[in-house]
């Protein structure tokens, strides 16, 4: 079934996307490509020249990431508007994390229980 059907006329004459920010000028695009000064958006103060340290986000361990992803999956499943593809993608991520976690485990050998003198 189609979640959001539209008429043929609406499909052919689709309304323009809503602009969320000012379009980039040629100079802005050149600066972005060359890696020169960043292009400021409306949320940034153009008078603020201070160099702020980027926020460092500590990554989760693999053991911590699995329940976070499972909770995200449960959240998505409890709300309308998400596709089965979204759920499938998240389940694949969870499986990949579990696989990576098992690959990182080092098996204990018998000699690990004995100390050398």
Structural features, described:
The protein contains four helices and no strands. The chain has helices at residues 8-12, 26-34, 62-77, 84-103. The termini are far apart.
Helical percentage = 40-55%
Low-confidence stretches: none
Strand content: under 5%
The termini sit apart by 72 Å
Keywords:
mainly alpha, 117 residues
In short:
With 117 residues, the protein is mostly helical. It has helices at 8-12, 26-34, 62-77, 84-103.
Please render the helix and strand layout as text.
Elements: H1 8-12, H2 26-34, H3 62-77, H4 84-103
Helix pairs in contact: 3-4
